Amino acid sequence: MQFVVHYSITPELCDVAQTRFTETGAPPPSGVTMTGRWHCVHGREGFLVCEADDATALATWIQQWSDLLTFRVLPVVEDKTMAQVISG
User: Fold this and answer.
1) Calpha distance 46→56 (Å, rounded)
2) Which of 36, 45, 78, 81 is the most buried if burial means most Cβ atoms within 10 Å?
3) Widest distance between CA atoms in the chain
């Protein structure tokens, strides 16, 4: 399943989060394939697109950052799949 993940960082935690990111690269765990990651130029929010067969792996990744970031996770489907859903 594909997910769009939005993250945000409060100004008070921005330096700590950015330091952790530059030190670790925030790689996805086993079971999650990251398609891409984009950061807003102000540095306090961004988006990533990933795939995971098991949402538990995605939850594990998010928990590693939940002390610094707030997340909104959206399961998504491609046009073709949504067209099938809509057409019944």
Assistant:
1) 22
2) 45
3) 49
